[in-house]
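REQUEST ID: PR-0412
SUBMITTED BY: lab tech R.K.
PRIORITY: routine
TASK: structure prediction, single protein chain
INPUT:
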Amino acid sequence: MDIRFLSTLLSRKLFASAAMFFCLLCFSIGTLANDWRYTVRPGDTLWSICAEYTYNDSCWRELANYNSIDDPTTLSVGYVLNIPASWLKQASIAVTAAYVSGEVTYTVMGEQPAVLVADQKLALGTTVTVGEGAATLSFEDGSFLVMNAQSELVIDSVSAFKQTKVQSIEVSLPRGGIRVSVPKRHPRTQFKVTTPAAVAAVRGTIFRVKSDVDADVTRSEVLEGVVAIDTAAGSKDLLAGFGLKTGRGQPLLEPVELLAAPQWNLECSDPGYVEWEGAPDTMAYQLVLMEDDSNVDRVISVLTIADSHYTYKGLEEKCYQVRVNSVDAGGFNGFENERQLCNVIPLIPPFINKAKLGRGGLSASWKEVVAVSSYIIEVSADSEFSDILRTENISGVEMELTLKPERQSVYIRAKSVSNSGRYSDYSQPIYLERKSNTGKVVGVLAAILVFAIL
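STATUS: complete
OUTPUT:
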């Protein structure tokens, strides 16, 4: 037989086998991504697990094969079982979008991306992608995860939440940055973040993870508690106040101490303006703007700037929270300092530039004030404004009022009303007096008399 023919045939068979293996592998990965992972505890059996969490009558028999368990009568404590989400008694809802800002989408395996909105429920296997924006994800145990801009996250596994059992949460971070807050409950939640270069596992802490896909490195920063970092080169416990840079296939480095939190300068209260003291060894600052919510980080924007001050433009007339931290030469974000920022624009009273009291009534106009929705005009019979004749709410900058003809004088003043309902002080009162026509009549009579004499 022709050697070239045999070679071609063998190559085709190898290619077909490889293709089949790859398809099976993809199917396996796809299946596991939609599995619910359960950690075996003392006293557990396949039957008891299936009875409590699934409605599949043959679950206890099929589950052994699904997890390649040779002897289903013996389960090792700590062994992680993969249970198909379709078997569960309750929908495998893993997380809720607590807050969304900017360009954020989510993708369920095999479906087209959809826009993520607040209160959206996300199932296992869902991929969340943040463009120019941020997203806060809330887990049932009270954990929160904030995704920064240009980040991608996959929800791998979330165990059923019960106060008396350990909660297990696993996510993958192919790229971008996140901040995770895990509550100090008992038993504590096991929260695991997997990146291409490392795995960060915690039990009750606050930490940050950034996966730099271009440099193929991961930076982990611990603000509170302890985080176990696992890589192919080894593992290390990362303590609070330290950061660790890990690269795929690279040896473990020594932890780096995080920079102290910058101190705010609260003397200046200009609208939208924040300032802090410059810190040594700082290359840049990260500035996070959030809604004024003490329960969850509702992130609006994340900025990295070189200056130690910043002015937010276009803020609504309300209060926010702002968080700042230093960034060192190695790209590690330091400890954070947070303050409230109330964007309250000082209101000034309107300046009344024209006012007249005539036979037809009162007319007045004033200069427009910035960020004002309307003006309150008061007309009084006395300078103390104890005898109010009229009170008007005017949206424009001029008005005409009808008053009784016998009213010979009045006092008028005005104040501004902001879009949020705040009031300025009143302007200085203006005294108006109706001019008498007696002088004109006397003048006309005098002119007629002179003409008659002549």
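NOTES: Residues 36 and 83 are 5 Å apart (CA to CA).
REVIEWED BY: pending
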